[in-house]
Amino acid sequence: MRIGLYPGTFDPITLGHVDIIQRAMALVDRLVIGVAINRDKGPLFTLEERVAMVEAECRMITPRTGGEIVVHPFENLLIDCARDVGASLIIRGLRAVADFEYEFQMVGMNRALDASIETVFMMADARRQAIASKLVKEIARLGGDVSKFVTPPVVEALRMRLG
Fold it and tell me: What ranges in 9-115 are assigned the alpha helix state H?
């Protein structure tokens, strides 16, 4: 069984994330969505809320893709999380060249820690390349319409959180 790990903070999950999840399902039998705790980023949503949002979105994806999706919170090193869930593949989404520079460094470090775990980059769909959770939160915080960037349940969660 080929297991892939798609890590992120998912604060909140966006249509860009959903696009990568759907396409990653073609590469693996089981996709583990690693929801990073990452206290340093000061997330808008709690870990439990982020896990629930990701699980809700994945319930919509699974019937279309036929694979298995598991949501797994983690706070340890990414490479250790990959080992913990039995992943042979780490899936990373790229939006722009700036993403690649950071991700390139991460791959080098992860390969030094465990060369048996491969990293695969997936470019976001052209319609989704500008979407970033940070920008979605800022637009929502300032009263803008984020319905082009997230699903209706996430729009509602943002409204509830930000007023």
Answer: 15-24, 47-65, 78-85, 97-113
